[in-house]
Design a protein that fits this description.
With 82 residues, the protein is mainly α. The protein is built from three helices and no strands. It has one domain: ACP-like (Non-ribosomal Peptide Synthetase Peptidyl Carrier Protein, Chain A), CATH 1.10.1200.10. It is 52% helix and 0% strand. The longest helix has 15 residues. InterPro entries: ACP-like_sf, PP-bd_ACP. This is Polyketide biosynthesis acyl-carrier-protein AcpK.
């Protein structure tokens, strides 16, 4: 799975949790908080993405991520090493 596909999985799950963002033009620099995701939304998005990617990693490994582009990068690295 390539980085673009992981980014698409992220976007799909973001839009599922935050349907008001459907049609939004997502950029790697977008931050979930700025997009309107509260802590529960963010946890749900992460859980759904990890499930979609069949990853089991501690959430703490994602804590330093600043935006969805960085999140896609970290997830890509985890998929490659899984």
């Amino acid at each position: 799975m390539d980085k673009q596909r992981i980014f698409e999985v992220l976007i799909t799950n973001i839009c599922e949790v935050l349907p008001e963002l459907d049609g939004h033009r997502f950029e790697p620099e977008d931050q979930l908080v700025e997009l309107g995701a509260d802590s529960v939304d963010r946890a749900e998005i992460i859980t759904m993405v990890l499930e979609d990617l069949s990853l089991k990693i501690p959430r703490i490994e994602l804590s330093g991520v600043k935006n969805i582009g960085e999140l896609a990068e970290v997830l890509y690295d985890k998929v490659q090493s899984a």
